[in-house]
Amino acid sequence: MKSDTTSKSWDEKLKYLPILGQATLSIGGEIREHYQNYTHVNFGQIPASYVTENPHQWLHRLLIHGDLQVHPKLRLFAQINNTVRFWNPNPITSQVDQNTFSFHQWFADLKLNDQLVLRVGRQELLFGQERFIASREGPNNRQSFVGAHMIHKQKNMRTDLFYTHPVKLNLGAFDDVKTTEKLAGLHVKYDRFLKHLNLDAYYYYFESKAREYYSSVGAENRHTFGLHAYSNPQRFNYDFEFSKQLGRFKSLDIQAFMAVWDLNVAIKSHRYIGFSGNYVPGDRSTSDGQLNTFNTLFARPPFGQTVALNISNTLNLSPYIRYQKGTQWLVTARASFVQRTSTNDGLYTPNMTQLRPYDPQKMTSNALKVCDIYALDVNYVPTKHYFFQAEIGYCQAGSYLKNTGAGENVIYFAIRNAIKF
C-alpha cells in the first residue's frame, strides 16, 4: 500500500513499487522446508514398486508472486511454484509431493463496480472450513483450478460464483495440465446473520468421466447442497455443517449426505476442551440402484497428515484439548475413533481414491473398526514472516484394515518451517 517508505524494511518496500502512471507492483513469496517421517506408511500397504514402508523425506517449497495493479479496475496476478522431494527412495506416485517448476496461479481481476470482481485464469479456491474445496496447504503442492470466478461483496455478505477445471500437477517444468473434470458452484457467506450465528450456504456441481467407488469405475455427475452454521470466537463455540448430494454415477442414482460438528468451551483463558466428529454414511447396498458414497471433492485432509483417510463411509468421534493465544499459538491434542458406517462400502483417501479394499481378493469384510488416531499439532507464529509447525501422530489399525490388507500401526512425525515476505 502507498505510504511513506523511509521507515519501511526492504520486504515492506516490495509491497508498493510504482511502475508507470497508475500502475504499481507488489512482490511477495514463501520458502517452506518440511521434514516428514513415517513408520508403516499407509498401514504398511504399499505398492510393489516401493522400496520401503518406513520412508522419511525432506520437502522443499518455493512460492514467488507478483501482483500488478495496472489500473484501479484491472489487476494481474502471477505466482511461480517450485517443489522438490528429497531422501525418500520410493517412486513419486502422488501429485502432492513434487512439481519442479510451474505457474501455480495466473489470473486477471476486472473490477466491474465497487462490489463486483470478475477473476479469470488459474487460481486457488477456498471456502468455509475447507471440507469441500481447499487450498491443500499441508502437502507440498497446493491445489489450483482454471476458469472464471465472480466475487460479490456487500456489507456482511460475500457471494462466489465459479466455473473451473481442476489442474493436475506433473513432476517436470511447465507440464501441468487442465483436467477434463468440471467443478462449478455458488457459495454465499453471511457474517453475523444473527448475533451469535454466521451462515454459509452453497451449491457445487462436479463432473468426471472416470471416478471409482468400491472398485467400480465410471462417469459421475454430482450435485452438492449444504449449510454451514458457526459462531464467532467466544467462550462457547460451535460449528455444524450438513450437506446432501444427488446425481448419477454410471446407472446409479446418487443419494448421500454428510453431517460434521465441532463444539468447544473455554475452561480457562486460551484453554479449550472440545468434541468434534462426523457421520457420513457409505453405500448401503450393491443392488438397490443407488450410490450412497459421499464425495468430499477437493477437501483438506480431515485427519491431518498421519493417515491418508477421508471421512466418507465413517463415523468419527473426536475429543480434543486446545491452547490458542491470538494468532501466535495454536496447539491441539486430539483423539479420533473411526469406524465404517456400512460393510458394503470401502474407505477412501482425501482425494477420493479408493484406499480399501486394496486387494480384490479381500473385498468382503463385516468388520467396522477402522482405526484410533492420536495426534498433537503445534503451530507457532512469532512474527508475520515466520511460521513453525510440528505434528506427531499415532494410528492404531483396526480390524477392517487388517482384514482387507496390511494392518500395521502408523507413526508419523513432521516439522515445517516457513519464511514469508
Structure commentary:
With 421 residues, the chain is an all-beta fold. It contains two helices and 23 strands. It has helices at 10-13, 399-403; strands at residues 17-20, 23-39, 56-71, 74-86, 99-111, 116-123, 145-154, 157-168, 177-178, 182-194, 197-213, 216-230, 236-249, 252-268, 271-280, 290-291, 314-325, 329-340, 347-348, 354-356, 369-383, 386-397, 410-420. The strands form two sheets. It has an 18-stranded antiparallel barrel. The protein has a two-stranded antiparallel ribbon with strand order 19-20.
What are the main properties of this structure?
421 residues, mainly beta, 18-stranded antiparallel beta barrel, two-stranded antiparallel ribbon, 59% strand, globular
Radius of gyration (Å)? 22 Å
How helical, in percent, are the residues?
under 10%
Give the number of DSSP strands: 23
Summarize the main sheet.
18 strands, antiparallel, barrel
Low-confidence stretches: none
Overall mean confidence score, pLDDT: 94
Count of helix runs: 2
Q: What percentage of amino acids are in beta strands?
A: over 45%
Q: What is the overall shape?
A: globular
N-C termini distance: 14 Å
Give helix and strand order, one letter per element, not per position.
HEEEEEEEEEEEEEEEEEEEEEEHE
Structural class of the helix and strand makeup? Answer: mainly beta
Concise summary:
The chain is mostly beta strands.
SSE arrangement:
Layout: H1 10-13, E1 17-20, E2 23-39, E3 56-71, E4 74-86, E5 99-111, E6 116-123, E7 145-154, E8 157-168, E9 177-178, E10 182-194, E11 197-213, E12 216-230, E13 236-249, E14 252-268, E15 271-280, E16 290-291, E17 314-325, E18 329-340, E19 347-348, E20 354-356, E21 369-383, E22 386-397, H2 399-403, E23 410-420
Parallel strand pairs: 14-16
Antiparallel strand pairs: 1-2, 2-3, 2-23, 3-4, 4-5, 5-6, 6-7, 7-8, 8-9, 8-10, 10-11, 11-12, 12-13, 13-14, 14-15, 15-17, 17-18, 18-21, 19-20, 21-22, 22-23
